[in-house]
Amino acid sequence: MSKTLFEKIIAREIPAQIVYEDDVVLAFRDINPQAPTHVLLIPKKPIPRIAEAAGEDQAALGHLLLKAGEVAEKLGLKQDGFRLVFNNGPDAGEAVPHLHCHILGGRKLTWPPG
Ligand code: 5GP
């Protein structure tokens, strides 16, 4: 199977501004930021989307959520707040079929989302 765009970023075949990495996850700045800080946090395992995650992914997804908080703090977002977004499927606007958590902050975010 061909690599997803984000697998190519993990493999350093496509450049990205990496802000955090460990054995399980990678965080890098979004190429088209929707807020002053917009980072994508992905599992290195190519799970397509939340709805395709399996029981065996529980530890990786728990780790990813813990790291989302840590990365947000590292980026200076803890005090004023931030938003985590997982787009799943066409109605949500999912464009890359490799599970990713958007970390958005640095401005007042509106609700409901568009
Ligand atoms: P989705 O719409 O699937 O939830 O989010 C995909 C995100 O990936 C978008 O915010 C888009 O800007 C970002 N993106 C697409 N291609 C690239 C790329 O080559 N590099 C980086 N850093 N982000 C990308």
What does the model show?
It is a single chain. The protein has 114 residues and is an alpha+beta fold. It has one domain: HIT-like (HIT family, subunit A, 2-Layer Sandwich). Helices cover 20% and strands 22% of the residues. The protein has two helices and five strands; from the N terminus they run αβββαββ. The chain has helices at 5-10, 58-74, and strands spanning 18-21, 25-29, 37-43, 82-85, 101-105. It has a five-stranded antiparallel sheet, with helices on one face. β2 (25-29) and β3 form a beta hairpin. The protein is globular, with a radius of gyration of 14 Å. The model has no long low-confidence stretch (mean pLDDT 97). The chain binds guanosine-5'-monophosphate. The site of guanosine-5'-monophosphate has 13 residues, from loops.
Task: Output the keywords.
HIT family, subunit A, globular, 20% helix, binds guanosine-5'-monophosphate, 5-stranded antiparallel sheet, 2 helices, alpha+beta, 114 residues
Total individual domains: 1
Strand-and-helix sequence, N→C?
Answer: HEEEHEE
How many helix segments?
Answer: 2
As residue ranges, the low-confidence spans are none
CATH superfamily: HIT-like
Fold-level CATH name: HIT family, subunit A
Strand content: 15-25%
Structural class: alpha+beta
User: According to CATH, what is the class?
Assistant: Alpha Beta
Largest sheet: 5 strands, antiparallel
What's the architecture in CATH terms? 2-Layer Sandwich
